[in-house]
Amino acid sequence: MSGTDARVRVTGDVRGQLVIGDHNVVVTAERSIVTVLQPGERPEPTRRKRIELLPRRTGALRGRESEIGEIRLAVAEAEPIQVHGGEGVGKSALVRHAARMMAGRESGIVFLNGSGRDVDDIAQDIFESCYDSFAYRPSVIEMRRLMAGIGACFVIDDLDCPRSELTGLLDRTPDAGFVLTSAEQTLWGHGRILPLRGLGRQDGRSLLGDALGRALTSAEADTADALWEATSGNPLALLRAAAASRPDGSGVRLPSPSELPDVLARVLGNLTAAERDIVSLLGAAEGWMSTELIAVLADEPSSLLQAADHLTSLGITTARDDGLQLTHGVREVLPEHLKLKAGQLADTAGRLTEWATSPDTQARRLSDDSRFVSAVIQATITTGNPRVGARLAALVAPSAARSLRMGPWRRILEHGAQAATAARDQRLIAYFTHEEGIRSLLTGKRVAAAAALTAAATIWSQLGEHTLAEATRQTQHLFGPTTSAPPTGHVSSGPHASVDHPADPTAGQASASHGSDATAGHSSAPADPGSATGTSTASTSGSLHAGGSGAATTGLGKVMSGLTGKLILGGGLAGLVASGVVFGLNGNAPETVPVHVKVTSAVIEVSLPGTREKGCRTEHGHTDCTTTVTPKKGESGPIEVRPNSPLPDGVRFVYWGCDQGPSASACTVRADQERTICATTTSPKDKAARTACARLAGIGDEPDKQDPSKSPTLMSPVMVMTPGGYISSVSADVAGQPVCRSDTTSQNRAGGSFLSCRFVVPTGTTLHLKATRSDRNPDLVDGDNSQVRIGFVGCDEQNDPLASPALATCTVQVNKGTVLCLEAPVGLRNMCSAYGSSDWPTLPATPPPGFSPGPHYSDSY
After folding, report:
1. pTM exceeds 0.90
2. Would you give the DSSP letter of residue 735?
3. H, E, C per residue of 629-694
4. Among 463, 413, 469, which residue's Cα sits nearest to residue 438?
5. What secondary structure, in 3-state letters, does 274-308 show?
6. What's the CA gap between 484 and 385, in Å, rounded?
7. How close are the terminal C-alpha atoms of the chain, in Å?
8. How many C-beta atoms lie closer than 10 Å to residue 287's C-beta?
9. CA triplet 542, 546, 549: central angle to 5 degrees?
10. According to a count of CB atoms within 10 Å of the terminal CB, is the N or C end of the chain lower?
11. Does 820 score more than 70 pLDDT?
12. What gap in Å lies between CA 118 and CA 113, rounded to an integer?
């Protein structure tokens, strides 16, 4: 087939009309046409009467009653809450379950998938869930106006984005609630943080039994416990372990902990043909893929539904919206026979083109599947048939634009430009370059837009397409008199790319762009047209891929040279870093407060901002250094040590002296007085560093051997008593205190059951307790506990049981040993009257290491 035959000749047919910010966009097959809206021409969308979009139903959720209660409380109090934790710990299952439980919420509930998506595109999802609006994407400022007064709760799963982008997203919806999940904490300064850990031992056993479809035998109990301990209760790891069980003489045999590294390969080796098809397609897609497209491309579409359900039960895939996604770690260990080769991918281009051009295929679906489309385009380049890929991209690009999702549109244009450059198809190079210029204009990247449109006009002039060239030049008038584009006929592949001027805030989604698009100036022109022959001297899209590889190499280099990291100061703490100020000599301005930050670790080398104090050591993988910041009094913000590469498994940073209390996994600070913060890791090598941090923060747990006059920090016990059967768990916000669960009930002398919990905290601590109601109360004849309301007695502050009957919270200043009670007012009995009664036996103590409280009885206080 000749090059001329393979080219896409534009027809000028209108594909769609959009409004993005203050721009009207007419999308055609040959190019997009942009005009500026006049006053009063902007659409007025209609608010939906009902705002609700729920995730699909999932199986039973085990061991997360307390977390569900905390999420519901945060939503009730209109506070954003972020659930963060390692892969497979159950973040998605938790928030999906929470979203289903909040169905029917008067102000609305919306569940969205954030995996691998631009934050600006998620903002568009939020807008469309609240408004009936055909083909309209409001600007940032206009969206804030439209979203004002909307109190819906948006549950966004797997939203891993920089802190600045998350803040921008929350700002666009000022009155809405948010439940977010992410691998790392990125919500600082306001809202709640919920670190998610693995399941408890009994819940881990139950999960294994559910996966096997039966109760565990007594012979399997020890293996189950060993698996639970080896996986730290990670639900995904336990699910895969059950999937890898093998038959033996008496049934099936669970794998031992030593077999865990081979579990995933074992499961992948036992897939059916239909399951292999799905896994191979998802591996090529590098993320989510719609079940509709899987059905188009799979060899056995009739068994797709059954295969998809089985893969999810094996812990291989996760069902998200109307599609599937590989779970963590699967793609990295796919055996060769499950990886689609470039030739196999290129062979799907025909079916993909047919599907993309079908009148039944919606623009939004094409947008969602853009990752797989891009993979196919890349495969056509690898196999030496780039014209097929360029043609596919040109057919899909208008639909990507019509979807109003800028991330997928960028992706298709980028890979289409690479294919067109490889095919030396100047006409398609001009098309992709022009469209990237329009996309850059609509997202506020005006310098990049000017360069791309100038390049497109130059190519069209060289091809004799003078009408298109002149129309493109006319589009540049939208930039206004302050923007100067490179002169016609000269295309710069580099200098303009490093400049990205901010746009007028009403011009598209200018602020808080996704990280992968924040450098769009580097790929503003999909291909450098070079000369009239089509020989490209440079491809900025190609350099983008080279940059990705370079980043990977750099990351590997960091791992090889030892762990490194940096101290991050956020909020008001980042304003002033002490430079050469010696506190106590020069003094401080009255309005500032010194905050000293010490980082000490034997496993990671950390760089600190500002002037370091004398004796600092940050070398050879070790850190022992203190810096000082001087924020204004009353300012607050986060303090975080961020590794440049992942820490060893199970190791994380911990902080002392923060607002969260001792040994906290996250740290925020309010500069109300001079204070010292200390950070180290949970690595066994940092045991001495943790002791030093505890002493530095004034919460040491043993006498100072150098000075016998110094005594350990005074500790006080706090006891919580409640009738047995009504409470599922009681937890405290002080690190190191275990969760007290209902399986620890005891009998009092009268024969009645009760739950007794004991926490031991530093004297003077402001303690926050949280209790959750059990699912079923044995004292009720019919087992219906819907009207049972639980509440603390004896607190300084507590929540209203009428507002949240299944959750009770308590705040108490612990200045001495304290006894609290949890009431379950159902008219059966009042156990809180047992304060000081000898009917209560000794309560078990759970003190921190090094503290021996001695005997304590409930009638001692």
Report:
1. no
2. T
3. ECCECCCEEEEEEEECCCCCCCCCEEEECECCECCECCCEEECCCCEEEEEEECCHHHHHHHHHHH
4. 413
5. HHHHHHHHHHHHCCCEEHHHHHHHCCCHHHHHHHH
6. 38
7. 92
8. 18
9. 145
10. N
11. yes
12. 11
Residue 337 half-sphere exposure toward CB, CA atoms < 13 A: 8
> Which tokens hold the place of 683?
């690595």
Token digits of residue 234: 């990670």
Polymer length in residues for the chain:
861
Query: Rounded to an integer, what distance in angstroms lies between the CA atom of residue 770 and that of residue 72?
Result: 13
**Residue 46 near residue 131, CB atoms below 8 Å:** yes
E strand or H helix that includes residue 225: helix 218-231
User: Residue 120's pLDDT is what?
Assistant: 94
Residue 773 main-chain phi, psi, to 5 deg: -75, 145
Assigned token pair, 322: 């109307």
List Cβ neighbours of 195 (8 Å cut-off, separation of 6 or more). 84, 85, 185, 665, 666
Contact (CB, 8 A) for 625 and 660: no
CA 271/CA 171 separation, integer angstroms: 46
E strand spans, 358-489: none
Q: What is the DSSP string of 88-127?
A: TSSHHHHHHHHHHHTTT-TT-EEEEE-TT--HHHHHHHHH
Give, as one character, the DSSP assignment of residue 399: H
- Decide if 814 contacts 765 (C-beta within 8 A): yes
| 3-state DSSP assignment of residue 855 | coil
Phi-psi group of 158: left, alpha or beta (phi > 0 → left; psi -120 to 50 → alpha; rest → beta): left
Tokens of 257: 């902990």
DSSP 340: P
DSSP string, 342-386: HHHHHHTHHHHHHHHT-TTS-HHHHHHTHHHHHHHHHHHHHTT-H
CA 27 to each of CA 170, 402, 478: distance values in angstroms, whole numbers, following the listed order: 31, 7, 17
* pLDDT classification of 531: cutoffs 50, 70, 90: very low
Backbone phi, psi, residue 151, to 5°? -100, 20
**Would you call 207 helix, strand, or coil by DSSP?**
helix
Residue owning tokens 């937890």: 731
How far is it, in rounded angstroms, from Cα 752 to Cα 168? 54
Q: For residue 520, give the amino acid letter.
A: A
Higher confidence at residue 582 or residue 186? 186
How far apart CA 483 and CA 489 sit, in angstroms, is 18
Q: Please report, for residues 575, 579, 608, 629, 668, the alpha-carbon distance to residue 582 in angstroms, rounded to integers and kept in the order given.
A: 18, 9, 17, 12, 25
Phi, psi values for residue 423, rounded to 5°: -85, -10
Which residue has 């100047």 as its token pair? 426
Question: Alpha-carbon distance 401 to 436, whole Å?
Answer: 11
Q: Which of 471, 467, 392, 405 is nearest to 432 (CA)?
A: 392
- Residue 224 pLDDT greater than 80, yes or no: yes
Count Cβ atoms below 10 Å from residue 167 Cβ, excluding itself. Answer: 15
Copy the structure tokens of residue 135: 């083909």
Residue with tokens 């503003």: 524
pLDDT in tens, 68-102: 999 999 999 889 999 999 889 999 999 999 999 99
Which residue's structure tokens are 């309005």? 591
What span, in angstroms and rounded, lies between the C-alpha atoms of 600 and 335?
42
> Pick from 427, 438, 426, 428: which is nearest to 402 by CA?
438
Distance CA 719, CA 233 (A): 28
Looking up tokens 């003077």 gives: 764
The Cβ of residue 557 has, within 10 Å, a number of other Cβ atoms equal to: 10
Q: Are strands 715-723 and 818-823 parallel, antiparallel or unpaired?
A: parallel
